[in-house]
Amino acid sequence: MPEVSDDGESVVPRCDNPYRKWYTVSGKKNYHVPSWWNGTSFKDGPGGSMRVSVEKAGKIGVEVSGTAGASASVLLAEVKAEYSLKVVAEVGVTVGHAYTRPIPAGKYGHLQYGAWGYKVNWTKYATSSDRCGKVKIGSGTAKLPTRETGWRYWSTSS
Fold this sequence. Notes:
- The protein is mostly beta strands.
- It has one helix at residues 72-83, and strands at 3-4, 10-11, 21-34, 41-44, 48-53, 58-61, 63-66, 90-93, 98-103, 108-127, 134-156.
- It has one domain: Proaerolysin, Chain A, domain 3 (Beta Complex), CATH 2.170.15.
- The strands form four sheets. Strands 3, 4, 7, 10 and 11 form a five-stranded antiparallel β-sheet that branches. A two-stranded antiparallel sheet has the order 1-2. The protein has a two-stranded antiparallel sheet with strand order 5-9.
């Protein structure tokens, strides 16, 4: 039922919310944030074993994708506040972390160096034009590293 003034006229509700933008995060999953430079991704086989090591120093940083250009620093802060995680904007990788892994017979082994971290979904909102509600501006995912780095292994048939 619409609001009515003392003289019987309809009153349009007034909202005093200031215009603002904000993010929400959800769907936290453990995720290996890969490094993408040469010397950190290997495939070998079939069968046998793999011995690999990091041959170049570099950095692994936050990866943000989606619509409406999300701010990595704001997403980091939101994830830290929502989940109490020790995520970082970037982690440095030094040369020399070696790893050996057997490959099952008839399979190919894959090793990818990276940071153990998290993947989250994000949504960006703003107050609506009447400032009484909210509108969705965009959404996407963010891959957030921690300071823990290491090798991720998987095997395939080809």
